[in-house]
């Protein structure tokens, strides 16, 4: 039993070492890229590169309360541990939409 737990912990720590960061820029009231595909354990960083406009990243289907705003020069990040498609929008600008697709990390990577 202890050996199994040790192996699981080792695999989890190796997955964190191989995790990647992906950047989504917020500019001209758009998320760029609008859709992104990442692997489990990866992190997405949304950077507001606007000069004056604030935004947020609201996973409305998962979180009912609107999150804090991201002001120019600020960022927000989230690490995705579950597979699936996660649509999001900007609360102040609901026509701004995007999605994160999380896929299983290939074996051996």
Describe the structure.
The protein has one domain: Immunoglobulin-like. Helices cover 15% and strands 36% of the residues. It has one helix at residues 2-17, and strands at 21-27, 30-32, 35-39, 43-48, 75-79, 84-89, 97-103. A 4-stranded mixed β-sheet has the order 2-1-4-5, with no helix packed on it. A 3-stranded mixed β-sheet has the order 3-7-6, with no helix packed on it. A hairpin with a 7-residue loop joins strand 6 and strand 7 (97-103). The longest helix is centred in the N-terminal third of the chain and has 16 residues, at 2-17. It is globular.
List keywords for this structure.
109 residues; Immunoglobulin-like; 4-stranded mixed β-sheet; alpha/beta
């Amino acid at each position: 039993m202890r050996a199994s737990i040790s192996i699981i912990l080792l695999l989890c720590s190796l997955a964190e070492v191989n995790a990647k960061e992906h950047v989504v820029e917020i500019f001209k009231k758009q998320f760029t890229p609008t859709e992104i595909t990442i692997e489990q354990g990866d992190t997405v960083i949304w950077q507001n590169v606007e000069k004056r406009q604030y935004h947020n990243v609201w996973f409305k289907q998962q979180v009912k309360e609107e999150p804090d705003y991201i002001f120019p020069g600020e960022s927000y990040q989230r690490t995705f541990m579950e597979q699936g498609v996660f649509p999001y929008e900007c609360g102040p600008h609901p026509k701004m939409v995007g999605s994160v697709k999380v896929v299983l990390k290939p074996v051996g990577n």
